[in-house]
Amino acid sequence: MKKTVQTKIFAMALTGAMLLSLAACGAGKGMSTEEASECVQVELDTTYKGQFQGFVDFYSNVTTDDAKSQYDANVEGEAYAFLYGLGPQALDDSGDSVEPTEMQLHEVKELYKKIYAKADYTVVSSTKQDDGTFAVKVTIRPLDILHLVSDGIEEGFAGFWEKFEAVDTESMSDEEFESWYVDPFAKEYYDTALDLLESKIDEMGYMDEKSIVIQVQQSEDGSLYFSDEDWVNLDNLIIDYNF
C-alpha cells in the first residue's frame, strides 16, 4: 500500500443541494401572476431561511413538519457537499471521501443554517407566458463564504499540516496506517475545515447581484410546479461556487 494522504483541497464538485423532486404550489387553475410570485417566495423562504408559516399558509395540504423537512433536506445536502467535496479521499480508490463523524455532520449543518440565514434574494416580477407558464424573475446577491474558505485554506491548515507531515507513516503497518488515516488524520482534517468555515461566517459578504428566471409550470390539474434544474441553478447562486 502506498502510504500517502489524499486530500481534495477544496476541489468541490457541487451540483446543488436541492434534493427534492418537484416543488409544487397547490393552487387551482387561473392562478395570478401575484400568486406565482408568492409560490416562489414561500419556497425560497422555507428552503433557505427556515421560515415556514408562509409556506403552510400558501399550500392547502402541507404542515409545518413538511416545510421543516424541506429546509432540513437542503441544509443537509449542503453539509454533505461541503464535507465530501473537501475531505480526505478514502483509501479504497473509490474516489469517495472518508466518512465524517455524526458530530461533524451536525456541526456543519448548524453552520450552514447560519450561512443561509444571510441569503439575499428578491422575487422581482412574474409574467404569464402564452403557453400558460409563469416566468418569475428572482434577483440574488450570492454569498462569498466559499471564496473566503478557499482563500483561507493555506493559513487555516498550516498547523494541521505541520503536525501530520511530521508523522512517520512509512514505519506503520498497512492496518496501522488505515487506522491512523481515519482517526486521527481525517477526523482532525474535518475539524480543521469546520473551524475554518466557522471563522469566515462573520466576514461573509455579498457578490454582485445576479438574476434568474424560474419557470413555474402548470399541470393538467391546475397545480403549479417548477423543475429541479431551475432550483439547482438558483441554489448555485445563493452561495457562489465559482472560485
Tally of alpha and pi helices: 9
User: What proportion of the residues form beta strands (DSSP E)?
Assistant: 5-15%
Choose one word for the global shape. Answer: elongated
**How would a crystallographer describe the biggest sheet?**
5 strands, antiparallel
- Succession of helices and strands: EHHHHEEHHHHEEH
> Which strand order spans the largest sheet, edge to edge or round the barrel?
1-5-4-3-2
Could you tell me how far the N terminus lies from the C terminus, measured between alpha carbons in angstroms?
Answer: 34 Å
Radius of gyration: 21 Å
Number of strands: 5
What is the helix content?
40-55%
**Mean pLDDT, as a whole number?**
87
Q: Which ranges are low-confidence, i.e. pLDDT below 50, for 5 or more consecutive residues?
A: 8-22
The helix/strand class is: alpha+beta
Description:
The chain is an alpha+beta fold and 243 residues long. 49% of the residues lie in helices and 13% in strands. The chain is built from nine helices and five strands. The protein has helices spanning 33-49, 53-58, 64-86, 102-116, 145-151, 153-156, 158-164, 174-201, 228-238; strands at 23-25, 120-128, 134-141, 210-218, 224-226. It has a five-stranded antiparallel sheet. Helix 1 packs across helix 3. The chain is elongated, with a radius of gyration of 21 Å.
Brief synopsis:
This protein has helices spanning 33-49, 53-58, 64-86, 102-116, 145-151, 153-156, 158-164, 174-201, 228-238, and strands at 23-25, 120-128, 134-141, 210-218, 224-226. It is of the alpha+beta class and 243 residues long.
